[in-house]
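Example 4.3 (complexes with small molecules)
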Amino acid sequence: MSFQNPVFIPGPTNIPEVIRKACDMPTLDHRSAEFRKIFDPAVAGVKKVLKTTSAEIVIFPASGTGGWEAAICNTLSPGDKVLAARHGMFSHRWIDLCQRHGLDVQVIEAGWGDGVPVDAYAKALRDDTDHKIKAVLATHNETATGVLSDIAQVRKALDAVNHPALFLVDGVSSIGSVDFQMDAWGVDVAVTGSQKGFMLPAGLAIVGVSQKALAATETAQLSRTFFDFNDMLKSYATGGYPYTPAVGLLNGLATAVDMLLEEGLDTVFARHHRIAEGVRRAVFAWGMTPCANSPELYSNTVTAIRVPEGFNATEIVTLAAKTYGIAFGVGLGEVAGKVFRIGHLGSMTDVMALSGIATAEMAMADLGYPITLGSGVAAAQDYYRSHGNATALAAE
Ligand SMILES: *Cc1c(COP(=O)(O)O)cnc(C)c1O
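Answer. The structure with pyridoxal-5'-phosphate bound is encoded below.
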């Protein structure tokens, strides 16, 4: 692997130089007023990115998986029923985590390439007249398949039957790169990590907690210590943390949210749409298709690409790493060997994306795929040239 090259895995993502520098800090007393000068702006910025004014932000020294665990342990009790869909590796892992905590998961199986099955959710909620379902889980962006689901529609399904269940959303590979509206969508717990849209190293679980979710902590019986929301919020109120925070990462987070807000969230989202669309044009030019089953599901943060029958997609990833020093994502679980993934979230520009597309072409040509070198690059170039603004701030 070459450190000169960008990575095209869907997390951890490329770290802009200014963020790397911000993370590199001398030791600072996390009980001092100096710490609050880092922490408070980071929290205020995260609220803006999540589009919430009413939720609390809790930040654990953990990864996204820790955020999943925090979401359930703080709000639910053993044996509680939760509704979830399995349509890729990440939704699968969250279900597994819930089951290991003794929750009764009503799993709706969907295709790996489909979105959260809103109609099936609506039916399950309609049928649940005595409100046994205590929480509804949704994975906003299924990173394994490159599928973005419609979270507002899931909220509508809950509201249509006035269902009181909590709404817990995994936004790990969406938040910061595509629109996420915690308040408007009525999300009770929103989960993300530092190493995806926030362009940081791994090490922070960033969690938005609604007032309704906070109220649920009063009766929730699952055990929690490290991940206790109330311990965190009590300490925040008195100026500190219940244990040692990752100060350097939090300083990086303050810089990251500044960068996103300075570029403007709408500009950030438009940039990711443009980059992703160029990648998709390349995929079609290769005669291949995204794993996502229909255009409205296409993710603007990661594209999983189905390779032709008779080829093993994992070989593209292995060869690209070995020969060209470029990291792509392999297919996971049900789509292992069938897809490879180009991650384009976080710090990414049109020009960086072109280098990834070009490298994928070289790797596929080396492996005897029936593609013409330059075909995908040309398709993406055409799109980028006609859809302007290639100078994205995030690359500075
Ligand atoms: C990366 C990812 C996770 C897991 O996050 P970690 O930081 O690796 O623990 C969960 N959900 C989604 C959708 C992801 O992309």
